[in-house]
Each structure stands twice: as structure tokens, then as C-alpha cells.
Design a protein that fits this description.
Elements: E1 2-11, E2 20-30, E3 35-39, H1 46-53, E4 61-66, H2 74-79, E5 81-84, H3 96-106, H4 111-124, H5 140-150, E6 158-162, H6 170-185, E7 189-194, H7 197-203, E8 206-211, E9 214-220, H8 221-228, E10 232-239, E11 242-249, H9 250-262, E12 266-272, H10 277-285
Parallel strand pairs: 3-7, 3-8, 5-6, 6-7
Antiparallel strand pairs: 1-2, 1-4, 8-9, 10-11, 10-12
Bound molecules: adenosine-5'-triphosphate and magnesium ion.
Amino acid sequence: MIEFNNITKKFRNNFWDKEFIAVDNVSFRIEAGDLIGFLGANGAGKTTLIKILMDFSRQTSGNMNFDKIMGQNSNEIKASIGYLPERPYLYPHLTGREFLEYVGNLNSINPENLETRINSWSEKMQIAHALGKLTKEYSKGMLQRLGFVSCLIHNPKLLVLDEPLSGLDPIGRRDFKKIMVELNKSGVTIFFSSHIVSDVEEICNKVIFIEKGKLVYEGNIDTLLMKHANDLYTVKTLNNGKVEVVHLRSEEKNSYLEKMLSQKIEIIEIEKEKITLEEIIYKIKE
Ligand SMILES: Nc1ncnc2c1ncn2[C@@H]1O[C@H](COP(=O)(O)OP(=O)(O)OP(=O)(O)O)[C@@H](O)[C@H]1O
Ligand SMILES: [Mg+2]
């Protein structure tokens, strides 16, 4: 869908300052149907890359290729993307509904369709009750919900979301993740940035991980988990009223269990140890 080839972005704030490399020779692909988590610490370069993707900022070098399904020219490409910025500006003196109507008109959606879409998405994002209020009266989570509705209003093929889950309470995060998965299942490709590895692990098929502007990992999450899975088992036994825990490699497991059974020691639990995406990322970085 989109191919990033060797994207580099350098900043120089003053003529005499040294150049700062915010994005360093990054290449990866977004395929149609992907749900990609774009991970990296504060200042890693996520927003910078997203701004380049959205054409708000120009890369110093490198290029992007957009597949034909995204559109034939830059206007069509932009129209096929729904974008939620890190800090959305939602016009404080408009009501939620007025704001959504404004966004819909910018996207030339006919008024009837627009009202239907506003109502159904607001209902889904649980913000319908507040559409009559001025957005300056919204809480942070309400603004986030309204912002999310606004980037769905024109039926985008691709969603580009810069930290959509930050600033949400646990229920809000769960709602957002659920809707992101539903949208993805219905055919919308999603690329979103986050600091939270577990959120990415929970819903994404792919992860892109950058550190200090450099790509550290790009790929499938299941493959990564499988590759790094440690073949370890935890076995808990009960011996004379005392619980004992041992960690065993796969090839040691059966003989250990046989020994315990022959000694009539009770086995109370056997569990394969799981590795999380978070642990893998720390490993890759080392
Ligand atoms: N316009 C700019 N001028 C100079 N430096 C910039 C500019 N925009 C970003 N940077 C620098 O580029 C680096 C990457 O910033 P960026 O906003 O892309 O990080 P991020 O990964 O989005 O971080 P966060 O998780 O905090 O949002 C930072 O060191 C930042 O100071
Ligand atoms: Mg950012």
C-alpha cells in the first residue's frame, strides 16, 4: 500500500547548529489489511515520520511509493487517509456536531450521508450525547473520541493515528482498541504510534520499532514471538505440604515428571513460559 524507502529527516534549528537526525534511513512497507503498531520511546521520531507520510513535512532524503489503490494523485491519496494527530485541534468554539459537519464538508460528503455517518460513528464512539456541547467543554477523552470520529467520517482506506490511546482511561483504551480491530477486520488498514508494547501485542499483526530515528525491527508479531520463545516450562509440585517450583527445558521435562510421579509427589501445575513482545524488544536493543 505504501513503501517507505530510506527516509531521512534532519533538522537544523540555527545555521550554526549541528544537524540533528530525527529519522535515519528508515525503510518499511504498509500492506493493505495491516494493523501496524509503530513503537518507539519519546523523541524516537514517530511523529516526524508520520508528518512526512501525511505530507506536512518533507523528508531530507528518501522517498515514498503509494500503491494505485491509494489514489492516482496526491489529492486522491490524501482523501483516502484518515489522520488523527498527536494533539488534534478541534475548534473550541464549535459544537462537536458542527466540528464533524465542518470536517465532512471539507471532504465533500453529501449532507444526508454526512448526518448518517456522524450519528452512527458518534454512537459507536460513545460521544453522541455530547455533540451539542462546545468542544472547549470536552474532557481529554471526549476530545479523543471526537477526533477519532472526525478521521472516520470520509470512509478512509488507511488510518494514520498518532498515539490514539494516550490520555484514555482503561475503558476508553479498551473501546478504542476494539473499534480499531473491528475497522481493520472490515478492511481498513491502520498504522498507529504508541509507547505501550502490550497494546500493540494485543491487537496488531505487525510492529515497526524505532529508536533514535533508526529502524530496529519491522515485521510480523507472531513470527517474532515464536522466534524468541524460550522453550522453558515451570513445574509446581507439592511435597510434604510444601510447594516447589522448578524451571525446566523441554527435553528435561518428561523425565522430571516421571521421577516425581514414581515418588508419588503431586504435580499441581505445568506451564510453558511465555515471552512478551516487551521482553523481546528489550532483548533486541541490547
Ligand atoms: N520541527 C522540529 N525542529 C527540530 N527538531 C525537531 C522538530 N520536530 C521534531 N524534532 C526532534 O526530532 C526528534 C523526534 O521527535 P518526534 O516528535 O518525531 O518524536 P516522537 O517519537 O513522536 O516522540 P513522542 O513519543 O514524545 O511523541 C526529537 O528529538 C525532536 O526534538
Ligand atoms: Mg510523537
